[in-house]
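Data availability excerpt. The first of two example chains:
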Amino acid sequence: MRGEALLNRPVWNALSGAQNHLSFGNNVARRFAPQYGPLTAAIDYSEDGFAALRDLEIGETGLWVFDEFIPVNPIGFEILLCVPCVQMIAYEATDAPLELDMIELNDYDAPEMLALAELTRPGPFSTHTHQLGQFIGFKANGKLVAMAGERMKLAGFAELSGVCTHPDYRGRGHAKALSQIITNRIIARGEKPFLHTYQGNDVAINLYQSLGYQARATVHLTVLKPAW
C-alpha cells in the first residue's frame, strides 16, 4: 500500500511501518506502547484479529481502535464508544502564522503537557505521547496554556495532533497559530500533514479548513474493553 491509501488505516500502517519500534504486538494486531497512548489496530477484525487484540496489554483505558472499519461483534470485548471522525489533509503551506511567543516543548514540560491534555481532552494523551514528534506551546505567566504537535507517522505523512488550549485562554488564536506552525514544518520536510477531529466538531473543522486542510475520509474510533 502506498501514497494516500496509507491513511485509510492510519494506526495499522503507522505501527506496522515507521513507528513499529514504538509499539508491540505481532503481524495481526499492534498497539502503541502504553506510555505513548492506547491507539490500536488489527490487520482485520476476524476471529483471529480479535484473538490477537486480546493478547495485547490492554490497561484501564481499553484499546482505542482507530480505523476505516468498525469492529463488528468484537469477540471477547464490549464496545465502550464508537464515534466517526473526519480525517483531513493539507497539501500546501499557508501564510506566515500569527505572532506568538511560541516555545519548543520537551521532556521537562511533560507534566504540564499531560495536565493540559487531561483538562481539555484533545484525544488520547499519555506520559510519553510528546515524544512521538515535535511539540510546541505557548505559556502565560509561566504556565503552559496551549500546545500542538505530532503523533502518527507514515511514509510521506505526519499527523497534527494534541492541539488544545486552556479554557481561560481560548478565542485568542493560540491553537490556530501553533497548528499552522506544525503544519508548515511538516510540509517543509516534504511530508503531507493530516489530522483527525470528531465529526460534527464544526469549530475545529472550520479552524483547520482556514489552514488549508480539506476533508479526506471518515475513520472510526472504537474503544474496546475486555468482556471478561
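And the second chain:
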Amino acid sequence: MTTIRDAIAALDQLAPPYLTLGSDPRGLLIGDSKAPLTGIVACLDVTHRAVEAARKVGASLIVAHHPLIYQPARTLLADEPHPGSVVLACARHGLSVACAHTNWDVAQGGINDVLAELVGLTEVKVLRVTAKESGDGIGRVGLLREPLSATDFLNKLGNVLGIAPRTLTPTRALAVQTVAVCGGAGAELLADALAAGADTLVTGDIRHHEFVAAAEQGFLLIDGGHHATENPGARELGRRLELALPGVAVTFVG
C-alpha cells in the first residue's frame, strides 16, 4: 500500500530538505504519514478550492508550494478565511497537507528553473548560491537566444505568464539579453542580478521604491506577479510527483 509517507519521501527527493532557507516550513504539515495515499492535489496555495478538488477526485494529500501554516497560529477558527477555516476543512475531510517552499525554489528543476525556461533563457546559472556544498541557490540568470527590445521582451513575458507585467524603467532605449529571474518575491536580488551582468530582473511583489532604485540605474526591473511567476513551477512539482509515484493520480489546481 502506498502511503502519505511515500509521497513525502518522493517530495524530499525532488526538493531536498537541506535546500530549505532558514526555518521555512516544509514537508508534512497536517495529517497522518501512515494513511493510505489515494491521490494528490498539487497547487500553489492550499485554498478551499484545492480542498474541494481533493474531495471530488478522492485524493488524500494536498501538496502546495506555499505553506498553509507559515507562522505559529494562536487560533484556528472556522470564520477565519485563511488559514484557519482551510486547516479545519482539511482536518474535517481527513486530508493531509504538505509543502515544498524555498527548497523547491532552490531545487534543480524547481520554481526558478521552470521560470527561466518559460522566459527562454540559455546558459542558465544560479543567481545567489545558498547551499555552498552543492552550489544550489535562489534565482537564475541566463541569456536570451537573441537580444530583444525592452518592449518586445515585455510583450513576450506577458504572453508566457498570461498577465501584463509592470515596470517603471523607461523602456524606449533599452535592449534585453541577460535576464535574471526569481519566482515569487525576489526584488532583494537586484544587487545579485547587477553583479551577474544582467540587464533585467523578472520577479514579483515589487515595491515602488524598488522600482525607482532600478530605474535610476537604467536597469529593467519587471513585476510579473507572485502567482504568475510561481504557478508554472507548482504545476511542474505535481507532474514530477506523478512520475515518481506510479499509479498515483495527481490533479493540479492553478
